[in-house]
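Appendix B. One record, verbatim.
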Amino acid sequence: MTSKPKKVSLSVGELIVKAVAASKERNGLSVAALKKALAAGGYDVDKNKARVKTAIKSLVAKGTLVQTKGTGASGSFKMNRVTETKRLQEDQRSSSAQQTSHRELCY
């Protein structure tokens, strides 16, 4: 028996973070809009409702997302500003590290 090759893609949590970060809504992205964005990205939301729900709850618990309206896994969510700035700083650090290593290779 041969097994199917596993499809390598982003986790549900990463997809949710990506969708919320792409949203420019002031009050955040509602769960319905979030599910639409996931479905547009090719994720089967109807089949994985529970997985989406638990991913949202865990992201709120971690502090990655902030819940602006509602309770539990319902309402609206937006990116936490603290984690947003940390991520930008890490990106800048990694890009500067890559530039310095590139400079060292050139000389």
